[in-house]
Amino acid sequence: RIAYVNGRYVAHADASVHIEDRGYQFADGVYEVCEVARGFIVDMPRHLGRLNRSLSELSIDWPVTQAVLPLILREVVRRNHVVDGLVYVQVTRGVASRDFVFPAPGTRSALVVTARKADPAAAVKRAETGIKVITVPENRWDRVDIKSTGLLPNVLAKQKAKEAGAQEAWFVDTDGMVTEGGSSNAWIVTRDGALVTRPAEHGILRGITRTTLFDVAAKLGLTIEERKFSVTEAKAAREAFISSATTIAMPIVAIDGAPVANGHPGSVTLSLRQAFFDVAE
Ligand code: PDD
């Protein structure tokens, strides 16, 4: 495997960053994960648009010109022979002797790009089975709209899910409303067949898959209600699912151990999943 590290393509096993990289010390960095399907990087323009936003919210400079990053992503995918899988991009504020305040101007931000293969058959199987989620109290900061590498609450939540035999954890705010998953957006389908997902103005990451699913839903003639929903409503919903670059639309069959509807993946979720790649760019 090959990784891109600050201008060089290096063997993955030897790829490393400096011990005083601010990503390592402060999680002072941002990232993107893009799905690679049939050799194409799915929704790359939207991912790079969100990367630009994350960087600018944190006043981190672009490590390379915006025009060149797609070429690097494609090159890493190509060099790793990834046909189906994912590409990971991380930008940190760079290397500087440890100090909370920003380093001196001229300190170059650091760029790492990796890619890895995934088994599309395994994803199909997963979607046929569906996943289980648990709920955990929302305990993150209020800037989760920035795709920061500071993910400790997400790490702890997803580990807790794993220990409970589940695959994702849903964060729940103090009003009992679901915000999002540890690494995905949260959705339900109402009895009337409408899709419900939390507004992205506050409290969640504006998922790229979420945005593209809006387009998919429009194409399928499905109604979207962009509003908050509670755990109680989700448990009584016709369907529930998560979305992310790595899962697309993945059916949820149980929430906190209670089955969603008949405990099998829902047909609306599966049709969204089916139609996704016709709409994504
Ligand atoms: N996570 N919410 C959170 C907290 C996420 O970490 C992610 C993605 C999403 C979905 O965003 P998108 O549709 O753009 O992937 C929502 C990636 C996959 C990860 O951290 O691995």
From TrEMBL:
- For whether the record's keyword set contains Amino-acid biosynthesis, the answer is yes
Q: Which InterPro entries does the record associate with it? A: Aminotrans_IV (IPR001544), Aminotransferase-like (IPR036038), BCAT-like_C (IPR043132), BCAT-like_N (IPR043131), Class-IV_PLP-Dep_Aminotrnsfr (IPR050571)
Reaction catalysed? L-valine + 2-oxoglutarate = 3-methyl-2-oxobutanoate + L-glutamate; L-isoleucine + 2-oxoglutarate = (S)-3-methyl-2-oxopentanoate + L-glutamate; L-leucine + 2-oxoglutarate = 4-methyl-2-oxopentanoate + L-glutamate
Gene3D superfamilies linked to this entry = 3.30.470.10, D-amino Acid Aminotransferase, subunit A, domain 2 (3.20.10.10)
User: Which controlled-vocabulary keywords does the entry list?
Assistant: Amino-acid biosynthesis, Branched-chain amino acid biosynthesis
Pathways involved: Amino-acid biosynthesis; L-valine biosynthesis; L-valine from pyruvate: step 4/4; Amino-acid biosynthesis; L-isoleucine biosynthesis; L-isoleucine from 2-oxobutanoate: step 4/4; Amino-acid biosynthesis; L-leucine biosynthesis; L-leucine from 3-methyl-2-oxobutanoate: step 4/4
What Enzyme Commission number(s) apply to this enzyme?
Answer: 2.6.1.42
- Write out the function statement from the record: Acts on leucine, isoleucine and valine.
**Which family is annotated?**
Belongs to the class-IV pyridoxal-phosphate-dependent aminotransferase family.
UniProt protein name: Probable branched-chain-amino-acid aminotransferase
**What species is this protein from?**
Mesorhizobium abyssinicae
